[in-house]
Design goal:
Layout: E1 5-8, H1 10-21, E2 29-33, H2 35-39, H3 43-53, E3 57-60, H4 63-72, E4 77-80, H5 89-94, E5 98-101, H6 104-116, E6 121-126, H7 141-149, E7 154-160, H8 173-191, E8 198-200, H9 204-209, E9 217-220, H10 231-239, E10 250-255, E11 258-262, E12 267-268, E13 274-275, E14 280-285, E15 302-305, E16 308-313, E17 321-324, E18 336-343, E19 346-348, H11 350-357, H12 361-366, E20 374-376
Parallel strand pairs: 1-20, 2-3, 2-9, 3-4, 4-5, 5-6, 6-7, 7-8
Antiparallel strand pairs: 1-10, 10-18, 11-14, 12-13, 14-17, 15-16, 15-18, 16-17, 18-19
Helix pairs in contact: 1-3
This protein binds pyridoxal-5'-phosphate.
């Protein structure tokens, strides 16, 4: 029995994968983006289910995650989307891990490692087509192609870019501009005699709404977990009749560890920030900001107990918080509390929690403390 934990709905995850696979162009492979501990869901649990569900590849941010995936799934394509420090590039090469690159130094260091091992390093050249994040500018392409031609042990295995404005707008002009730049770079790469196998730019929103962008690999993150990239993407998907039903995979639970009746006028928690307006039953829950329950949820969030909505009272502490359970008819020690997910007719969504704290659903789930147990149900 756990005090605070995360439940992963295996059936929902498989259904999401099946729905998303159904949208992919015939040439496109499915890269499950499992960075940030699989968006807070649990890297191990999610990747094992996803591998059985038929994903072809895994995308991560950190080399350590990639090395674990390589061991667990020897035949899967494992792609590091983030930066690897140069003194660890030999581990990339030794593991046959694919790496997104956007620095000449990285390509030269990969060459040294691969040559010493008499093997091949697999690099995916990232193009900054308008995100101003990781990636080379299109005008730098010829310099980078020279790096590749002078690095015979480094294969230009992929070409990638990332959209800056695809989930927050229905105006597709900037995304179209980025895609056109990407296509130009791709043509120039091919004209120079390279033929990268993996062409990828689509995240969830592009994978669902813009099939033209699929290339040979789609990097699907948030929708795998049954969450929408934004309300706008969900609405647009419905409006265009795209058959993509998604179901949230994660439920976050805890338990009541103390119940007390307090009179009107009692201040609750640190800073005495909330005063009881009436006599109330207050329960203590062993969840705090260390667990990833943001302190910004103080006095605004609701949780579910026995199918009732209960308000968070006063400030969230490091490892505990208080809730008002006055409206719950029967309440007992160690009774379940749903922090995120469904209970009876009610649901607390990641989107609702994001609205309470002024962030996005991505941040709500990715920040759930990775040390909490993940149970597959
Ligand atoms: C996180 C990430 C994705 C996945 O985006 P979603 O919106 O979660 O599908 C795709 N590509 C890159 C480069 C990323 O960093």
């Amino acid at each position: 029995m756990h005090r605070t934990w995360v439940e992963i709905d295996e059936r929902a995850l498989i259904n999401n994968i099946t729905a998303l696979r159904g949208l992919l162009s015939p040439d496109a492979r499915f890269c499950a983006t499992v960075k940030a501990n699989a968006y807070g869901h649990g890297l191990r649990e999610i990747s094992r289910i996803a591998a059985r569900g038929g994903v072809d590849a895994f995308g991560v941010d950190s080399l350590d995650d990639a090395l674990w995936l390589r061991q667990e799934f020897p035949s899967a394509l494992v792609l590091v989307l983030g930066y690897v420090v140069r003194d660890r590039l030999d581990e990339v090469v030794a593991g046959g891990i694919h790496l997104v690159v956007s620095e000449s130094e990285t390509i030269r260091a990969l060459e040294l490692c691969a040559a010493a091992r008499a093997t091949t390093a697999y690099a995916h050249l990232k193009i900054d087509t308008g995100t101003a994040r990781q990636g080379i500018l299109p005008e730098q392409l010829s310099d980078f192609l020279s790096d590749f031609s002078s690095s015979p042990h480094v294969s230009l295995a992929g070409l990638a870019t990332h959209f800056a404005n695809i989930e927050d707008t229905t105006d597709t002009r900037f995304a179209n501009l980025q895609f056109a730049r990407f296509q130009e770079v791709r043509a120039a790469v091919q004209a120079a005699g390279y033929n990268p196998e993996w062409i990828h730019c689509a995240c969830s929103a592009a994978a669902i709404l813009y099939p033209d962008t699929h290339g040979t690999l789609v990097r699907i993150g948030i929708s795998l977990y049954g969450l929408w990239s934004s309300d706008l993407v969900e609405v647009t998907t419905r409006k265009h009749g795209v058959p993509c039903a998604l179901e949230p995979v994660l439920t976050w639970k805890s338990r009541i560890i103390q119940i007390k009746s307090l009179p009107a006028g009692t201040p609750i928690g640190y800073g005495l920030t909330e005063i009881l307006k009436r006599a109330s039953r207050i329960a203590v829950v062993p969840v705090g900001y260390w667990d990833g329950y943001d302190r910004g949820l103080s006095s605004v969030a609701e949780v579910l107990v026995g199918g009732h909505r209960c308000k968070v009272m006063g400030r969230i502490c490091m490892n505990m918080m208080m809730i008002d359970v006055s409206a719950v008819p029967t309440i007992s020690l160690e009774q379940e509390v749903v922090l995120l997910g469904r209970s009876g007719r009610h649901q607390v969504t990641a989107e609702q929690m994001a609205a309470w704290t002024g962030t996005i659903n991505y941040e709500i789930v990715t920040r759930i403390n990775p040390t909490l147990p993940r149970l597959v149900v």
